[in-house]
Amino acid sequence: MTQSSQRFLPLDVFRGMTVCFMIIVNTGGTGGTYWPLDHAPWHGWTPTDLVFPSFLFAVGNAMSFSMRKYEQLGNAAVLGKIFKRTFLIFLLGYLMYWFPFVEHTDAGLAFKPFSDTRILGVLQRIALCYGIASLLIHYLPKKGVWAVSALFLFGYWAILWFCGTPGDQYGIHGNAGLALDKLVMGENHLYHGEGFAFDPEGILSTFPAVVNVVAGYYTGLFVQQKGRTQQGLLRMAAAGILLIVLAYAWNTVFPINKKLWTSSYVLLTVGIDLLLLSFLIQLIDMAGFTKGTGFFTVFGKNPLFLYLLSEVLAILFHFFQVGGTSLYRWINDQFFQPLSPGKFGSLLFSLAFMLLCWIVGYLLDKRKIYVRV
């Protein structure tokens, strides 16, 4: 995500907020978490379910600055940049899930076999959505991009309904996305966080997620052109409200569901992002209130790097052991739970972990180091 978008502080703050809260919700402590920091069990949503799609929306915002440079490049150069970035982000995500490449067993450390590695995931979805959205935006006119986006949303709905298990089309076991993932990748290459094979970043649900990036891109263009006027803000807010209303109308037949990334969920999250961005522009640009924004811009200047850092640190905290228990649990149980037992102690750990990543980002920013992929 390019540095040029720093010209618009609200966009930078929005991007930084998404990274900040992604780190918090991904590093809950051992004493349980408050409901806003949990994902919805299945249908419905919580504030946590807004974080990932907002990150994709922010990717689209940043693309609205970088894609203009592609207009002066030849076809081969454009494809090279898009495919290179897509491949690198995907590879980083894949290696992150495999890292540290060994695991604890009764006989000691053993190599984690390729046959048990997860192929898709958060960074992989970011990579694929970026790649697909970039190709659409570069090669199609605006109306064509929106037509394909509509096809992704309605086509995904149709595939789930007609190709899923009858009576359980929107269930965790009967949805068509899971069947496709098992067919293409096999159960061992899927996420098992639910206690069985099911990947919330599966192949099929990637296509509606592309629309979050597309919406972020065109919102970024709109902000550059008209977003700093009251009329522009009203249009953005009105569009956000309309999308939320449409999302809940669609929810009656196609439930809002983050783990399936349903089309109604896309409309809901884009609508909320539009409202939040409108609020930030009103507060920061129109009212001139910038106090505290520097905290979030630290995350916004190195977003992918700091997210990756947070995930790698969490993996290492879980991997290294102290007295037979993971360092992650040991820190929680020895420091944060005695300080405040239960959910508040877990929240303190999450905040401390996020601040650790922020310090790294702050030091990089002070040295003008911005890691790009």
Automatic annotation (TrEMBL):
Keyword set includes Membrane: yes
Transmembrane recorded as keyword: yes
Ranges annotated as spanning the membrane: 12-30, 50-70, 82-99, 119-137, 144-162, 202-220, 232-250, 262-284, 304-324, 344-364
Domain of life: Bacteria
Keywords: Membrane, Transmembrane, Transmembrane helix
PANTHER family referenced in this protein's UniProt entry, alphabetically: LD22376P
Full protein name: DUF5009 domain-containing protein
Record lineage: Bacteria, Pseudomonadati, Bacteroidota, Chitinophagia, Chitinophagales
